[in-house]
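Researcher: I'm preparing a figure for a lab meeting and need a structural model of a single chain. I don't have an experimental structure, so a prediction will have to do for now. The sequence is pasted below. Please return the structure as tokens so I can convert it later.
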Amino acid sequence: MVSEEELEKYRIEGLKVRVVRDADPANDVRGIVVAWDDRHVLIRKPNRNVVKLSREYMYQPASDKRPEFPLE
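Model: Understood. Here is the structure written out token by token.
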């Protein structure tokens, strides 16, 4: 789960993040952190839509290399 400190850093800096939801890169969500609570994070995508995602997903700066997952 992503920490409060990480989310606060991403929000304050306005840093674009990548939310890795599974092994398929097409399912990643990119945008900026808007708000969060105990279980969810609101991400504003470039088209200005807002999505509500679980805090259980992996959050990382969009500029970082995407992690590799083993093929099943």
